[in-house]
Structure to design on (511 residues):
């Protein structure tokens, strides 16, 4: 660096370099390469590594074959029903299972053996992980959505829960390590892109559907408690 | 158009101060119903949280003319000037953590959205809002007795009475299950209403003439002739609201046959009370 340049101050000399001084083209090229490499590293770690770090995987207590049960029991509400006060029973308790199951196994799967051995014999509830569990501050009324018109919206379970009734195996439950919420809230896609109505269960998704269906996204207390 | 907006409720209550004995059942039931945390020293009123608070008023006279009245004060669920939903607290919240439900007339408070600036507390003329200076501490095992229908709050957020909104949700769930479009009067009652042994609190829909609260209050749907900001003034000469002239339009009304009690609902200049004490909602509007 010449004496004259240093007199002019560093800001000006920096400007000269990027302006196309042939001597410094090499440095510019290195900078671009460095930028691209850093971008690729950050991009890949953000998309591939970050979700793995963010979510911890937990296996369900034992595998549950939804397709098999739907075939035997009928529809979703054979097991996941509304109570008479309008509240939703959620995942069935042992009592509900034992309406069909007996001390003797109904089938020959090893999952049922686990169920009989670990839970029925010990009269212990199965500690299922709930994929669609919402945060504590959220109020959700199944009755309002599934009951037929004029009161309810008459929606199908699939619209929000997806074709879970056709699955033969339980996927691992993924828990956000920071918030403790299920991954199903944000959705599988780390960018938040959704292709199906059941891909994501964030507040914006609820509000968007409410806006189109009822003409208003709803007041805070409609879904918060 | 939203179906709920067509048949908008306007939930409110009227508290009979002549019946209230000041027993505090409303305060206790409110705290246990809504998971309100209690403090080591509940007498420290800068720290304690009371969604429903019973105040003691006196006529200031000496024996034998002394009279005492107890005034329970929940959130007033103000409709704001002209009853358009611009409640004092809603207007100032920079986080939209509190909004006015036009379908119910209930002012919400969303704890997860609140960041604790406490503007709303400054704006509220009724001291109905409380700040959580500390995380709630439950005696060991007691957290298992909390209501799952109300989310507990953390330090750094504001909370207040919600008119037991979760009870409204439960009533609606039942109505959905039964295939009814609307709920009955007795299906949605706040915890304080059901706990009051004197039956001093009456809760219901101020828009529904069949409800008891409407029968007692007889709210005037038109703006008051002497103050266009005041809407819903009672046509019952014994019913008043707190600081009614502000135009906050609370949905909590008070009832007393005693004049000094009604006068205690606001501050008056000398001689001012005599001029306005007989001004009630117009009888002419059906």
């Amino acid at each position: 660096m010449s004496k004259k340049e240093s007199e002019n101050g560093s800001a000006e000399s920096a400007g000269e370099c990027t302006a196309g001084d042939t001597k410094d083209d090499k440095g510019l090229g290195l900078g671009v390469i460095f930028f691209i490499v850093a971008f690729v590293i950050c991009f890949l770690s953000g998309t591939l590594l970050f979700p793995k770090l963010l979510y911890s995987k937990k296996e369900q207590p034992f595998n549950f074959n939804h397709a098999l049960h739907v075939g035997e029991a009928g529809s979703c509400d054979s097991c996941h029903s509304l109570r008479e006060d309008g509240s939703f029973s959620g995942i069935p308790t042992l009592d509900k299972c034992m309406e069909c199951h007996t001390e003797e196994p109904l089938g020959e799967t090893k999952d049922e053996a686990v169920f009989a051995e670990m839970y029925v014999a010990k009269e212990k509830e199965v500690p299922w992980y709930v994929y669609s569990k919402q945060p504590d501050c959220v109020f959700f009324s199944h009755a309002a959505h599934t009951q037929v018109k004029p009161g309810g919206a008459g929606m199908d379970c699939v619209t929000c829960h997806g074709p879970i009734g056709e699955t033969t195996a339980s996927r691992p439950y993924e828990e956000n390590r920071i918030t403790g919420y299920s991954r199903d809230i944000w959705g599988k896609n780390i960018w938040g892109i959704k292709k199906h109505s059941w891909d994501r269960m964030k507040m914006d998704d609820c509000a968007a559907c409410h806006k189109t269906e009822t003409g208003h996204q709803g007041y805070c207390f409609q879904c918060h408690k | 158009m939203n179906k709920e907006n067509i048949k908008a409720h306007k939930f409110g209550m009227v508290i009979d101060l002549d019946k209230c004995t000041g027993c505090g059942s409303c305060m206790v039931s409110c705290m246990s119903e809504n998971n309100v945390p209690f403090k080591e020293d509940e007498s420290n009123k800068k720290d304690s949280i009371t969604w429903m608070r019973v105040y003691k008023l006196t006529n200031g006279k000496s024996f034998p003319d002394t009279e005492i009245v107890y005034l329970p004060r929940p959130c007033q669920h103000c409709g704001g000037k002209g009853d358009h939903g611009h409640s004092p607290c809603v207007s100032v919240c920079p986080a939209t953590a509190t909004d006015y439900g036009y379908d119910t007339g209930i002012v919400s408070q969303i704890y997860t959205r609140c960041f604790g600036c406490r503007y709303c507390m400054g704006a509220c003329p009724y001291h109905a809002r409380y700040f959580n200076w500390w995380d709630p501490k439950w005696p060991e095992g007691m957290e298992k007795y909390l209501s799952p229908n109300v989310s507990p709050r953390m330090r750094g957020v504001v909370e207040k009475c919600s008119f037991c909104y979760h009870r409204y949700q439960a009533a609606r769930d039942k109505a959905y299950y039964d295939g009814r479009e609307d709920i009955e009067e007795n299906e949605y009652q706040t915890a304080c209403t059901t706990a009051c042994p004197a039956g001093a609190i009456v809760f219901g829909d101020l828009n529904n003439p069949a409800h008891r609260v409407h029968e007692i209050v007889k709210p005037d749907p038109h703006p008051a002739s002497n103050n266009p900001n005041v809407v819903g003034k009672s046509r019952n000469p014994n019913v008043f609201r707190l600081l009614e002239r502000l135009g906050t339009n609370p949905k909590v009304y008070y009832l007393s046959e005693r004049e000094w009690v009604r006068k205690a609902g606001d501050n008056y200049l000398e001689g001012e009370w005599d001029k306005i004490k007989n001004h009630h909602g117009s009888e002419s509007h059906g």
User: Anything to note?
Assistant: Chain A has a mean pLDDT of 85. Chain A touches chain B at residues 82, 84-87, 135-137, 139, 141, 143-144, 147-148, 150-152, 214-216, 219-222, 224-225 (CB under 8 Å). Residues 25-54 of chain A form the longest helix (30 residues). Residues 134-223 of chain A form one domain.
